[in-house]
Design a protein that fits this description.
The chain is an alpha/beta fold. The chain contains 23 helices and five strands. Bound molecules: fe (ii) ion (FE2) (2 copies). One fe (ii) ion binds at residues 239, 243, 271-272, 292, 355, 358-359.
């Protein structure tokens, strides 16, 4: 999906009680002054007053503020201005804060946040509203009895992953601070190769799967560890890893740029995250087969019962956790890629094909035809998934996926 410019008159309201932070935002976003109509409020009450005079398309709010805090403000915005996209920009990176506000928030960003990231996030919050801005999805997430918790090391890992100077060993070191999690991540990285571990250490795993895969591997490991649903084998690590590997191999074959190939792996790993937090309802859905069917029919059934599909709930959580847009979209549309409203051959197509093959389901054939790849799924169904981290294209070029360590 290519980035489209926001409508020229996108109206964005920033809320922060600290004068210097408001001034900093204003300075940082100067290049956007002809693209966005920007307003700044010093607190929740002022923000709501400004909204009543003139609603905003996007609200970006601090969390901890005297009087009305960010969570209360965004809940009020959700109530009175449901069309407005809501972003938390907080110095508090702790997960509790993120989860408390989950029902009222579309995206959670932690400070400090650069201009590029902020501009991208605001733009995408606006663009992706049809997907995770729907009140029924937020309601379904808010109704989850047990929300997944992000591991304590997660924030450090994400920060380090964005730092070009941090090596693979540095990343492995951060993950190893959580011993059980590190073990699970390594186990996942070795799937589906069984007990003979090809990848002996976490650093080996990151070299094989690519440095950019660290975030996805850790997230998948944490979710699978935290939601042990043995009766529900479909959501097990093997299915996640198979889909991840397939997604990556297909993305590679499609000639997507390297970061997109890794995104396809991560999205494949996490594509059924919604099943982990929301096991499908029992009647007729108890079997893995039933849950795997997906497609427009399965999705409609899930919407009827839960208010949202596992794909939508998974995408919603990933968006709140700040995963890249490409991954959020690929997860959100894995059963129904036509909803993404794009005919670009990209990560969405790769992950749709991978999930269909791993689920032994049927692809959206009209979508594949439109993309000019009618036989993509049939071809890959019979193909071997490349083992290890080496992909045909990368291998031919004599490089492993563990570039830039
Ligand atoms: Fe699925
Ligand atoms: Fe699946």
């Amino acid at each position: 999906v290519t980035d489209v410019a926001p409508p020229p008159s996108l109206s964005v309201l920033f809320v922060d009680d600290e004068t210097n932070i408001r001034a900093g935002l204003q300075r940082m976003l100067r290049p956007m002054r002809n693209v966005w109509r920007m307003r700044f409020a010093s607190g929740g009450a002022e923000a709501l007053e400004m909204m009543s005079a003139q609603p905003a398309d996007v609200v970006v709010s601090d969390m901890r503020m005297p009087g009305m805090d960010g969570g209360q403000l965004l809940a009020a915005v959700e109530q009175c201005f449901p069309q407005t996209a809501r972003i938390v920009l907080s110095g508090q990176c702790d997960q509790e804060v993120a989860l408390c506000t989950i029902g009222g928030t579309h995206v959670f960003l932690s400070k400090p946040c650069g201009a590029d990231q902020l501009i991208r996030t605001v733009t995408r919050a606006w663009r992706l509203r049809p997907m995770y801005g729907e009140p029924r999805i937020a309601r379904a997430v808010a109704a989850l009895r047990r929300l997944p918790r992000l591991p304590a090391i997660y924030h450090d890992l994400v920060t380090a992953s964005h730092d070009p100077d941090v090596s693979i060993d540095g990343l492995a070191c951060i993950i190893r601070r959580d011993v059980r999690l590190a073990e699970k991540a390594l186990e996942l990285a070795n799937l589906p190769m069984g007990p003979t571990r090809e990848l002996a250490t976490l650093a080996d795993a990151l070299r094989a799967h690519g440095k950019d895969a660290a975030q996805g591997l850790v997230l998948a490991a944490a979710l699978i560890q935290d939601h042990d649903v043995p009766a529900f084998a479909h959501a097990s690590g093997a299915h996640a890893v198979t889909t991840g590997r397939l997604g990556r191999a297909i993305a590679d074959e499609l000639g997507l740029p390297r970061p997109d190939v890794t995104s396809a792996f991560t999205a494949g790993l996490l594509h059924d995250l919604g099943h982990l937090v929301l096991p499908p309802p029992a009647a007729g859905w108890a079997s893995a087969e039933g849950a795997a069917q997906g497609g427009p029919e399965g999705c409609a059934r899930e919407r009827e019962i839960n208010g949202a599909t596992h794909a939508e709930i998974g995408a919603y959580l990933l968006a709140v956790w700040g995963l890249p847009e490409l991954i959020v979209e690929a997860v959100g549309f894995h059963h129904d890629p036509a909803l993404a409203d794009t005919n670009d051959v990209g990560v969405i197509a790769a992950v749709h094909a991978a999930s269909v093959i791993a689920d032994r389901g049927a692809p959206d054939q009209a979508y594949l035809d439109r993309l000019g790849m009618p036989d993509l799924v049939d071809r890959w169904r019979s193909a071997d998934i490349p083992a290890g981290g080496l992909l045909p294209r990368a291998a031919a070029a004599g490089v492993s996926m563990g570039w830039a360590s």
